[in-house]
Amino acid sequence: MSYNRDEYGWKNGLQPNQEEFNEKTRLQQPVKLQPSWEENNLPEDELNFKSLTMDEANLQLNTPPDRYNLVYLTFLVHGIGVLMPWNMFITAIDYFLKYKLHESYIGFAFPHAPNFMQYLTFSSQVPGLLFNWMNIFVQMGGDLNSRIVWSIGIEVVVFIVTVILAMSDTTAIPYGFFWITMICVIILNMANGIYQNTIYGMAAKLPGKYTGAVILGSNISGTFTSVVSILSSLITSNVRMAAIYYFITALFVLLICFDTYFALPLNKLYRHYELKEKKNLETQKRIAKGIKERPPYLYILKKSFPQLLNVFLVFFVTLSVFPSIHSSIKPSDENFFISEKFYTSITCFITFNVFAMIGSWLPSYVIWPGPKFLWIPVSLRLLYIPFYLLCNYQVEGVNRILPVLVTNDWVYWVVAVTMGVTSGYFSSLGMMYTPRLVEEKYASIAGMFAGASLITGIFCGILMSFLWPWVIGHVGN
């Protein structure tokens, strides 16, 4: 393009006016359409999605449906998986005491057999308790994703070792089998402490019903393991083969958890809430101007403490009674329609697991009471402890002094139903309410606190259960 020198006064030896020249040049260029919404530096809360694709921006703005309840079912499966190690080893107690460590198998009375449950309990719960709390404050294994992968992977390896031990002849090394089993349980529960805590942290990103799905799955886990134990015994009368089928089933469930975890980020609903969390983190970083800020753990703990206490108390009461007292209650009426052979299986294990599962399912339809008043029914559940102690609770080798005041089997059974329902229902409400007490950006950490409170309640309840044989033998007339 050429310009007339006279028009700009060049013929007089003067330089052209640069601003006028640039303006005239701009006006003669073709008009362009600009994607100005990306370039106008609009506030991030409105339309500034420069770091996202159009699909991601759409996902962040619009909440997609949970098609076929796939996300809900995924967290349900992980709920089954997080309590699988504990349930599997506790339910397999006959495999250890009546087969692998029994006198008929090893040729002598194994000295640790009478206290096997105590060893198993401490080996299971202490690592889980420590790692559950450490997982909140220490970035073990990196972010939530890598923690899930490593923890499930370790559990799979431990169950493979357990299956190999079941298939092997250990008559010559009973002490070796015992301590290898305890080491496996410790490693398993270290990994499971991280796994359980992280799953609650992941579920806390989503609406409350997904945390409820984890709780429901945890309660289904007990029923599932009981059914698997019965079925494996029915398939074969050989104790060793039944144990192999039993542990392989646990391995299969963990592999399903592993696979469904990798499918979860493909779901649009889960990605929507992940992007929301990512946006919150980016906003927080921008406000902090690049300064890395530790999460305010004390603030989160203080805000969520009422519900953390509720979660703790629910599991403390439940584990104080079940299965320690619950499984040792004998029928008071010889003519009761359930025979003594099936009395414990039906009135204790089946009743508790099934109704705890129903209780966990109820919050999908009914949510009452609210967060402010949940502590009232949760505190009233403490009355279950003296009630069960006053039932026909008998411990082998203990001369009961405490009088038996509850002599009606129907009354005992109806109360057992209510304990199962309230355990599942109130624990679900507490876990669902906890992340909602803090800002959305802290919901994950609050969910992890709730998971740690859950395992703390379980641990303290189990410790308390060792006191009850002494109570019935020393308290009374």
From TrEMBL:
Membrane topology summary: Multi-pass membrane protein
GO annotations of cellular component type: plasma membrane
Protein location: Membrane
Cross-referenced InterPro entries: Eqnu_transpt, MFS_trans_sf
Transmembrane segments: 70-96, 148-167, 173-191, 212-231, 243-264, 308-329, 341-361, 373-390, 410-433, 445-471
Keywords per UniProt: Membrane, Transmembrane, Transmembrane helix, Transport
A Pfam family recorded for this sequence: Nucleoside_tran
GO-annotated molecular function: nucleoside transmembrane transporter activity
Signal peptide per UniProt: none
Top-level taxon of origin: Eukaryota
Family, as annotated: Belongs to the SLC29A/ENT transporter (TC 2.A.57) family.
Protein name: Equilibrative nucleoside transporter
Protein species of origin: Phaedon cochleariae
Organism phylogeny: Eukaryota, Metazoa, Ecdysozoa, Arthropoda, Hexapoda
